[in-house]
Amino acid sequence: MLKYTIKRLLGTIPMLILISIVVFSLAKLMPGDSLSGEIDPLNTNPEYIEEMREKLGYNEPLPVQYFNWITGFVQGDFGKSTKYKTDVFDIIMEKVPNTLLLGVISLIITYILAFSMGMYSGRRPYTIGDNAIAGINYIMLAIPSFVAAVVAIYFFSFHLNWFPFGGSVDILIEKGSFEYYLSKLHHVLLPALVLGAMGTASYTQFLRNDIIENSRKDFVRTARAKGTPIRKIYNVHILRNSIIPLVTFLGFDFAALIGGAIITESIFTYPGIGMLFLDSVTSRDYPTLMALTMLLSFLTLAGNLIADLLYGVVDPRIRLD
Question: How many domains is the chain partitioned into structurally?
Answer without folding.
Answer: 2
